[in-house]
Design a protein that fits this description.
Blueprint: E1 4-5, H1 10-22, E2 27-30, H2 32-38, H3 40-77, H4 83-108, H5 113-140, E3 144-147, E4 153-157, H6 164-170
Parallel strand pairs: 2-3
Antiparallel strand pairs: 1-4, 3-4
Helix pairs in contact: 3-4, 3-5
Length: 199
């Protein structure tokens, strides 16, 4: 089953109203953030991420301290240094500043070490939770299950309500491009608000 992200509660509310009005759909919700807090595997994985973040922040802090010390020392000697020496010192400080910036980007930038480790460490746990939600939905006969943590996320949808193929027919899209003709996509990981905050 596919998982579909939603930007607002409008879709969820509309479905719930429809369910109450017509009694045709069974809708449930989960709090994935609470699940992740109580799941031992998730707690352990988050602990590993927190330890890595602390280690990397320590590395950056050490470089920043060195840079500040060098800058303070230069300011004290700047007026007595010849112009060539001042240029050399300023270039040295600029290189150190770039080193700090590059390391911060390497660790915490887009697709950096933190992103990679979150994917490696947390993704298996998130997929486990997603699978459990989908299993419960099928076993209990739910048509839709939403995640109420943060942004609305549709965690499960019964295929009998999928009208994608009808829309494709209306648009006269060739059959080979319709759902089911390609390999199913992997579930989207459970969103959570427990990721480390980097300052």
């Amino acid at each position: 089953m596919k998982i579909v992200a939603s930007k607002t509660w409008i879709l969820a509310c509309a479905m719930m109203v429809s369910s109450v009005a017509f009694g045709q759909q069974k809708i449930g919700w989960v709090d994935s953030q609470e699940i992740m807090k109580q799941l031992p595997d998730a707690v352990e994985a988050q602990g590993k991420l927190d330890a890595l973040v602390a280690q990397w922040q320590g590395e950056i802090s050490k470089l920043q301290t060195q840079l500040q010390q060098e800058a303070d020392d230069y300011q004290k000697r700047r007026l007595i240094l010849p112009e060539q020496a001042r240029v050399q010192e300023e270039n040295k400080l600029a290189d150190m500043q770039k080193k700090v910036s590059d390391l911060r980007n390497q660790r915490f930038g887009q697709n950096g070490d933190l992103f990679q480790q979150q994917n490696n460490i947390m993704r298996p746990v998130q997929e486990k939770v997603v699978q459990a939600i989908q299993d419960v939905a099928k076993e209990q006969g739910y048509d839709y299950i939403f995640d109420k943590s943060g942004q609305v996320l549709l965690m499960y949808a019964n295929d009998k309500y999928d009208v994608t193929s009808l829309v494709l027919d209306k648009l006269k899209i060739p059959t080979t491009n319709k759902p089911g003709s390609t390999t199913p996509t992997q579930p989207t990981p459970v969103p959570q608000n427990t990721q480390p905050v980097v300052h």
